[in-house]
Each structure stands twice: as C-alpha cells, then as structure tokens.
Amino acid sequence: MTSAPRAARKGVLHDMHGVQRPDDYHWLKTQGRADPEVLAYLSAENAHLDAVMAPLRETQAAIYQELLSHVQEQDDQPEVVRGAYAYFQRTLEGQAHAIFMRRPLAGGPEETLLDLNALKVREGLENVWVYRAVPSPDGRLWAYLLDTTGQEVFGLRVLDTATGELAEAPLTGLSGWVLDWNAAGTALYYATDDATQRPDTIWRHTLGQPQTQDERLLHEPDPTFRVAALTTEDGGTLRLVSQSNMAQEWWVLDTAQDGAQPTLLLPRERGTEVPVLTGAGDHWLALTNHGGADEFKLVRFPKRAGTLDWADAQDVLPYDPARHLTGLHLFRDHLLLAGREEGFTRLWVLPRTPGGYGPARRVEFPEDSVTVRIGANHVFDAGSARIVFTSLTRPVEHLDLDLDSLDTTLVKATPVPGYDASLYVSEQTWITAPDGERVPVSLLRRRDTALPAPTLLYGYGSYGFSMDPAFSISRLPLVDRGWVYAIAHVRGGSELGRRWYDAGRLAHKMNTFTDFVAAGEALKADGTARELIAMGRSAGGLLMGAALNLRPDLWTAVFPGVPFVDVLSTMLDDAIPLTTNEYDEWGNPNHADQYAVMAAYSPYDNLQAARYPHLFISTGLNDPRVAYWEPAKFAARVRDLAQPGSGTVVLKTIMGAGHGGSSSRYEYLNEIAEEYAYALAAVDGTLPTPDAR
After folding, report:
1. How far is residue 417 from each of residues 71, 239, 476, 516, measured CA to CA in Å?
2. Among 147, 200, 400, 623, which one carries the catalytic annotation?
3. Coil, strand, or helix at residue 654?
4. How far is CA 182 from CA 237, 258, 261, 334, 529, in A?
5. Structure pTM?
6. What is the pLDDT of residues 267-279, one digit of tens each?
7. Which end of the chain is more exposed for a tag (fewer CB within 10 A), N or C?
8. What string of DSSP letters covers 13-41?
C-alpha cells in the first residue's frame, strides 16, 4: 500500500478566554477548498484510500451486488394528488436518477415532467438534486428547485407542462427552504440566503418579470433566526415564519390578493415555542410549549385583526407530560396529529365540529415498535390521510387512513426483492447511563445469528432528531453475515420527548456521548457484541469523535461521516453556514462558560496520544453544513497522535458532492458497500496496517 499522506503542519495558536488552543492544521480551513495545496492533500488521501481498499474491492463489489439485489430498480413511488393530477416519481433499471411524472385524474396518458438522467447528460452535470417541486394550482406550470453542486444553492426552474419547455429563464442563488405558489398561479414565493447561507429573506416572484424586480416580503436581520414559508392546507394563506431553536415569529398573507403584504400574527418571545401554526375557517391552531407545556400542547385562537393574544388561547388537546406533540395536518372535517408516547411515534385523529374539535382517538397498529408519520397530503376536503409506516423488519408502507373509521388501506408496500421478514428479529433493550438514566437501544439481527456477534452501533443525538426504528436495505449485507445492527437512542434526540432533547444539548451535551459509550459497553457486557463498530453522520459524526476520545479501546473501527468534529473553530466563525443559527444547540463560545463546555468535548481539540481503532472518515468537498476541513484536520491529527498498534486511518473526499454524498442511487449503494467492506476487514483483521514510523 502507499504511505499514508501527512498534511503539512503550520502551527497556529488560538487564544481565547485565556485558553490557548494549538492547531497545526488550521491552514486547511483558511486556504480554502480551491487552494492547490488543499486539493493536493485531499487527492493524496483519496489515493491512500484506494490503496487500502484495493484488496477489498472484490468484497465491496459483492456487497454492492447484494444491496442492488434488494432494490426494485424499475418502480413507481406512490402517487400524490394535487389538483387535477396525480404526481409521482419513477425509476428505471440502470438509470441513476428519478423521473418526475404525473397522470391526469380524468384519464389520459402519463406525462414526463423532468427526467433527471437526461438533464444530467444534457447539461454535463456530475450530480443533480431536486429538493422541492410544486405544481401551480391549475397544473399548467411545474416549479422545482435544482442543486447541481451539492452546495445547497438552488436554481428555480418553471416548466410549462403544455410545451415541455421552461416558461422563463431560471432564477438563481435561492435557498432550498421555500417554494410555493399564489392562488392564481401567477407568482411564486421563494427564499434566499445571506452570506453565511442562512435563509434570511422571502420573496415574491411574478412570472415573466426579471428576478431583479422580485418583491421582498420578509427579511430577518437577526443572525440567530432563519426564515421559512408554507401555505395553509386550504391554500388560502401563506404562513411566513422566522425561527430559532427557542422561538418563532409568525406572519401571514392572503395568497389570493395581488400585492398582499405579510401581517404579523404572533410576535417572537424567547422560550415560547410555536413550531407549527396553521388555520382554516374562523380560527388558528398552534402547537406550543406556552405556559410550561414542555412536551407541547395544541391550542386554538380566534381569527381577528391584529396579533394573537395568549389570553385568547383555548386548549384543543389538554397538556399531557407523557405525550410529546410534534406535528399536525388540517383537513376540512378532521385534524391529524403526530407525536410520541412511550418512546414511539403515534398518530391521533380529532373530528372537526361546528363548535370546535371532538375527542382525540389514537390510531392503533398491531405492533408497538414501529415508526409512523404523516405523509404527503394536498387535498383539503379529503376524508382519508396518507401516512407512512415502517419498522426495523418491515419495509416502508404507504397507507391511506380513513379519518372516520381509523381503518387503513395499503397504497404501496416498498418492494424489497430477496427479503424475507420472517428471517429477522427486532428487539429493544435498555442500558443504564453513568448518571442512572435508562437509554433505549434498538437491535436488528437474523434469528439464526449466534451471539456474541460483530455489532454496528449507530447514533446521532442532536437537534431533537429521533433515530426511529425504520427499515433499510443497507443493513442487510451485515446482518446476513451474522452481525447485529444496533441504534442507540441517546439524549439529544427526542425519542423520549422534549426532555430527552434538552438533556443532550448545551451544558448537557456530554450526556449524548456518555450514553453512546454506555450503550457500547452494555452490548459487550450482556453478550450481544463481540466486536463493536461505531457509525454516525454529521452531528452523529461529532458523536463518533467524542466517543472515540472517551473510549478509543472500545471500538474495532469508527466511521465518522461528514463529521462535525472541529466544534470550536466552527462555532467561533460566524461567517460560515449554520453557526449563528445553532447557538441554542451547542452554545456560543464567545462566552467563556459556554466555550468551556464545548472545549471539554470538541473531538478535534480533545485528541490525545492513544492506540486508535481503524477509522474511515468521509466528507464532501462542497459540503456547506460541515466543511471538508473539519474531517481533514481530524484525520491529520489522529495520525500524529496514533500510538503503535493503532488501526488504519482513511479519509474519503467526494470531490463533486456535498453533505448528502453522491446523488446517484447506484453511487450511494457503492459508498455503503465500500464502508462495509472496510468494516468487515477491520473485524476480520485483514486491513493493511499503518506504515511504521
């Protein structure tokens, strides 16, 4: 194999709050991703990865074929009705990207709206992502946001469905957070970002006019807030929201009124959260923590001129600390509510009556350990709702829920060729964290797997995002080889409600990491795990780095994907994406006490001389969320500090993609196969050893 590359050491000493922080690889950030020295180093790392993987490519190819064997390559996604058409995506065998289609409800031939495969070839693009696509109310036009670099900077294209041509020149430099139509289909609402890629402005674009003449509807100057917008379920009102982690401010405008300007509906109040606000008829509905409802409650306000007054709020669903409410969708005659109870996702239906709302009825399923969520619903008058259902052993099912009877009808079960659910078993166990908290862990294995077995432990634990038990074909190559796949539901997620999130952020962030380590230790102690592989992406990559520092000896290999590992350097730079938005998640290191909290766990800054396990670190050169330099710096410093007997360290940089990796579904499978081949070799002891120094 080739020698592992060694990045140049250009010593920098950061000094803040009287604390000095050495950083030999700061130049990887300051010189930028277009710098020849930076590109040469990243290319050398990719060459080293190729050399390490050379003897493993046959295994990688076999795993790729196994993954592909479970993919229904030619398939249609479930139709979603919008207006007079049913919209869906189609994939064809051998083609890497989706084709956007629609079918007239009144009958007639299918129509192709956008073939991403053809677009990619026609425009010579390396990757293509469509984040949002919305038809005009009459279906004559179809608008979509297109990213071609992975940097999450979008172009807005509007297709004339009658001619198949663009209706106007694309708009450029847009955010991916907003795309909607006015009632007449003559104007579009969209958002743009500031210099830090924070969505800060919402615009109205009148078709046929140049982008320079678009109207600014809302601008948010506070760098800790970001904007978004979405029409109400009946299509009559555009809801504009400026939001931070701890507060939201809501504005509304009439989508049917030409030139309508937003009016303030609910002012911001730090600590009072209203993550969902909608309305139809004579009232507004809001999910809120107002009045000490930590797990959120559902209230209604009468519609009238001026801003909402909390004194007028009436409970629709009384507060229950055992029920964490997360979302809702309003229909003409019903309200569908989403939340969590006892660690699992739940749905409730409330009938709408002339006087308000009837009692909430929970939607029941045959098994408890499932994940269910509200799907795509765009027909306000519908008597049924699209929901999505899955578990660790049950592929995704799209169901229509009768809102009166609560019966479900299968719309589409995701086909998984070669998969027999009866061969697998899922379980939930509980482990005890160092502070005595009980943490749930989900497990997937084949019924015939002998324990202890090699175990992959996955984790995330940030932003309140829950890693709910859901099916994925990507786990099958490992569990079919006698592995256990485990998910640690650590604090920082919302699996056990808002308290679970609050217990894993800011000053409590260390709980996320110690929960994960405790899960790994417990899986070894109870006879489940023989070898442990740790894996996580993005903020889950932060978890990987912290868990590596806490217990480098516990893991056979660690896979930090697009990892947020240089916490202090990032959070001290308010000129890069996400920083100011996330002070309520990590803290603001400009304050000495919050700096100290982050300094105690920042993976890059806490690396010490140790015997490290194998590491497979991945990043995207164009990643706007976690910049390439964080994982690159981390890999370089690990090599400096690795003691004899340490594992192999590789750094993979995808040169034409961002945070989500390659846009091709085949490349995505190949990237999984590559990581699994590395994991298998790590467990088998067949990875090439680092060169002696």
Report:
1. 6, 42, 12, 34
2. 623
3. strand
4. 9, 9, 12, 25, 55
5. 0.96
6. 999 999 999 999 9
7. C
8. EEEETTEEEEETTTHHHHT-TT-HHHHHH
